[in-house]
Amino acid sequence: MHDLILYIQSYLDSDRTPGAAGNIFWATVYILLVFVGLSVAVICMNWLERKILAHMQVRLGPMRVGPHGLLQPIADAIKLLLKEDIIPAEADAVVFWVAPFIVVLAAFTVFVVVPFGRTHAITDMNIGILFMLGVSSLSVLGIVTAGWASNSHYPLMGALRSSAQMVSYEVAMGLAVVSAIMMSSMNVEGTGTLSMIGIVEAQKAQGEWFIFKFFPLGIIAFGVFAIAMVAETNRAPFDLPEAESELTAGFHTEYSGFRWSLFFLAEYSAMIAVSSIAVTLWLGGWLRPFPNALTGDIWELVFSLFPGITFLFLAGMCFYSTARMPKHPLFKIQTMGLGGFGAALAVIGLILFLPPVRVRVVDIYWFSAKVAGFMYLYIWYRGTFPRYRFDQLMKVGWKVLLPTGLALLILTALVGMRTELWADIQETLHL
Amino acid sequence: MTDPNTLSPLDLDTPDKTFLDANELVINMGPQHPATHGVLRVILRLDGEKVLGLECVIGYLHRGVEKIAENRTYTMFNPYVDRMDYVAAVSNGLGYCEAVEKLLNVEAPPRAQYIRVILTELNRMASHQLWLGTHALDIGAITPLFYTFRDREEILKIFEKYCGARLTTHAFRIGGLQYEAYEGFEKDVKNFVSFVKPKIDEYEELLTTNRIWLERTKGVGVISGKDAIALGVTGPVLRASGVKWDIRKALPYANYKNFDFEIPTGANGDTYDRYIVRMVEMRQSLRIIAQAVEGIPEGPIMAKVPKVMKPPVGEIYHSIEAPKGELGYFIVSDGSTQPYRIRVRPPSFVNLQALDVMCRGQLVADVIAVIGTLDIVLGEVDR
User: Which of A69, A229, A247, A383 is the most buried (most CB within 10 A)?
Assistant: First the structure.
């Protein structure tokens, strides 16, 4: 028992990720944690999207299953699992069967290198960002095969749109990423890195999130990425592959039940994945806000209290809603459920105040909070924008984002080299 | 833009080669499709995403309304017309009642006329609001739908209070009105006018200057004024092409000549112009309502109409400006209690003809936008 505690302690105090340290046991635990965490995040996202969108659209959203519809995603999941799994007679059954798994695999594998904290990643690869871009672009394969295998017109058109869209926006995305990587090479010791953890460490070392670096270059690169990532995940206003009003449901028209839910799962985890890339590259990953301006132990303490405060705030909201619940006997279970949910959140919040937990969780908290911000943006876009047409989408990708990305690349390089460049010029001119 | 005179009929008989070897794709849009506003079936011939031609297949909602009329008395047929354009039932009723009144040579009393105008213009608002919501939804903006439906609800509440029905109202009778305006009717209408004015700004805020909305609607589904007239297109679609033709002004009916309002026209005849025209029309409707509700005279609401209506032998054509265009009723009377023949000229049906002209050479996504902008109601197309 004592050995076990020591073993756990040895990990908790380690300064490397389990994968990088070669610790297979902890790596497996992490994989399971990430998998479960991601599934829970997708479930939460499902509920939040419906609620937030509903409130933007002057309606209530799910209210019936559980208090304030809290159990709605679970009810949906059960429904989807129980539904008949239809494979159309004319479909290519094997490919049809495999396609959703490709999409899900691609969406989940990306999380191997996502750094939730300095040591909170499954592994730290020296080519982390390349791995991430590479694997996440594999999902287009699944979408194309899904559309193809359905052997039907609408899915085929959806699949074609999707492949064209994802391929063209990947280019702009890549260019924006390269400019961030170049910024990471402006460390004091002057070495760049492709490692996700390394990039965040570089932002820490340079005392600046890359979004503010070389103003306005950093923020433009971030903007290019932020647009490209929405297109990459096929979300509004770039949701042409599944444009409901045009192609019914695009590439997954013929899918139902469990297989359809896999596409759903993949879409949301892909959203989380690309948001994590954006957070890691430009928004300082797990770093808390103002790491350069508000230094000192006091500020460290204040910012480490945030996770607990957030959970207590959510608990408070639950209690407020509990108090506002109708006082009818029929609502007794719902009221108790909401109160219980609030109590659970409050307990979690209190646990998060404990010093040993606090210091280890604060990294994950800041990372998740930033990703959550992106998730909100995704929902906001969906509530606000109409959908682009296919040719306009291509125009935005190739004629706007690509030249911007290229110019950005060159400018970042020039600005980054300016000191050496200046020295060279002086030397050449014998000043 | 395609010239409707040289438009070759769509060749759909070419065998559809096993579908990926062919360059051209023939696909069915509808009758079960989220964006065809009911049960319209459009056969699209595509080259990639480009529309080479299309053919509308209609009749899925055919109920034989015109034939039914031949077996009903004039009074009994009145509720049936509500079921044609079910989002603008009041306008349908107005057109029918006025046509029969013309045939009987009676005129509704002034008080009835005013209330008719108020209800009809409210209905125009409701119809345009529904159009805006669904049109924006087709183009991918989901939020306006909920805003417009929220505000349309207020109109339906007024209808419900007035005659008990929300959608198929059967609000008017031949010769006037059956119900006196309920207590507080004027107050409700005035409240609605002041309530909905800022709401229209709200819809415009979401769409009018939205970059994506502009790109999706400008230059899409263009039809020139000449072509529009040639195809018989009426209503906001015609006005957006620059033709100032509104039956409320051109051939005044009811008592529209007493009211001060403007007819908006567009210049380019594209989807954006049609959007703007309808938005302005909503404000103009509010203007008419505000004037009418101020001036409702006292007096009877029903003219002297015989219990058993036997219009003299003859025929009559009467048309009104329904929210979607010219709604005409051609009634032939043989002197009996039942019409010998009723023929309805529905605006949606005629406007739908223009779909092919407007869509050729455009993309699939534009077909959706154009169907939305034509503002068709299949109940009226098929009757």
Answer: A247
